[in-house]
Amino acid sequence: MTGQRHDLGASFARLTRMMIDAETPILRAHEIEMWDYTVLSALESAAAPTQAELAAAVHRDKTRLIPILDRLESRRLLSRTPDPTDRRNRVVALTDEGRAVLASCRVDIRAMEAEFLASVPPAKRRTFIEVLNQLADLTAPGRSQSDDRE
């Protein structure tokens, strides 16, 4: 490339595809799929008050989320319990087994990421990860870029 930078969208698209391709065999070794990992990760910090809210958080149509939840629940990686305030809703929560699988996947993914980033000098690697995390945090449900300007 001569003096021009890559477009962010194109760069993120290439990196995303490469990361998905690198993570897929790792997740397969743990007997989970990418969407399984996405759902487990979304539940890591807190239970989802409803399946609909979980679907919105992971950007997956709720009708397509149900088979994922069924599969994860059958493996006891998450639980769905009736909401005490509205029995039509199901509260979705990570189980201890789910936390263990998520942690194990994450260890292997972090090792792959370290190998991928090994050619980047440590200071630049730290900055890259910090900026990427900052940008990813901006996409959290219920958060907007204006939150940082206040």
UniProtKB/TrEMBL annotation:
GO terms for biological process: response to stress. PROSITE patterns: HTH_MARR_2 (PS50995). It holds the Pfam family MarR. It comes from the Bacteria. Residues 5-137 form the HTH marR-type domain. One of its GO terms (molecular function) is DNA-binding transcription factor activity. InterPro entries: HTH_MarR-typ, MarR/SlyA-like, WH-like_DNA-bd_sf, WH_DNA-bd_sf. SMART domains: HTH_MARR. This is MarR family transcriptional regulator. The lineage of its organism: Bacteria, Bacillati, Actinomycetota, Actinomycetes, Pseudonocardiales.
